[in-house]
Amino acid sequence: MKGIPDARPERWLGALALIVISLISLGNVITRYLTGGSFSFTEEFSVFLLVVLTFAGASVALRRQRHIRISFLERALPPGPRRLLIVFQALCGLVVLGLITWFGAKLAWQEYQWQSLSPGLGLPQWWYIVWLPVLSAAMLWRLLQQTRDRLAGRHDDDA
Asked: Membrane-spanning residues where (predicted)?
């Protein structure tokens, strides 16, 4: 759509994660119905993909200005203080997402160094964890884009 900011990589990643979760779950249900057993990998992959889906969706929501926030105060303020409030909101988000990115990267690196394996399938644990700092960094980028657009007046809040 024209005029709506896009986060195409995150949309594709989220859609792919949702499709794979659906296929894994469907396959598991059918297998359980027919054989009485289930695939052992479904829970581990599903949880991992759900985290990917959550962060990818949050990144898309940031870019499209669809995160929940109370904007009553923003609409009540004159332009100068409103800009300061937008910058303050962005700084708070940058701190939180920066900490998630930093500590997520640190954790992924430690898991790589320790050669930790996942409990269910015995895969390297860092394969799962590395997506946390990658997607939180994507959210950081989308937050900066959103803040730039809001400060430039390109995106007003929905009343």
From this structure: 12-33, 45-63, 84-105, 125-144
Q: 139: buried, middle or exposed (CB in 10 Å: 19+, 13-18, 0-12)?
A: buried
pLDDT band, residue 119 (cuts 50/70/90)? confident
In a domain? residue 137: yes
Q: What is the pLDDT of residue 2?
A: 57
Report how many domains make up the chain: 1
The range of the structural domain enclosing residue 87 comes to 8-69+77-151
